[in-house]
Specification:
This protein is of the alpha+beta class. It is 19% helix and 35% strand. It has one helix and five strands, in the order ββαβββ. Strand 1 and strand 2 form a beta hairpin.
Length: 89
């Protein structure tokens, strides 16, 4: 992964046409790869660390499908440093 790319969680929500992308902290993306299928199957809620240092809560019970991808564009991603969105502590 270069400095131009960042891992993002792409969420396709039930009943919503457009996916939601969350810019993740690199360590969060790596940890999430191992448990994403379990979170989806159980419909659990989880708070994830975003790339901007904040947190983003996701109720996987409302997610139809999700995957992690490496993206170059952060303009529409929640939690992207350039956007500064998410939940701060």
């Amino acid at each position: 992964m270069t400095s131009e790319t960042r891992p993002g969680l792409v969420l396709h929500l039930a009943g919503v046409d457009q996916p939601v992308t969350v810019a993740l902290a690199a360590a969060e993306a790596e940890a999430l790869r191992d448990v994403l299928a379990e979170l989806m199957a159980a419909g659990q809620t989880k708070s994830l660390a975003t790339a901007d240092g904040g947190h983003f809560a996701i109720n996987f019970g409302h997610v139809a499908t999700a995957h992690i991808e490496t993206t170059r564009s952060e303009s529409n991603a929640y939690g992207a440093p350039s956007r500064q969105t998410g939940f701060r502590r």
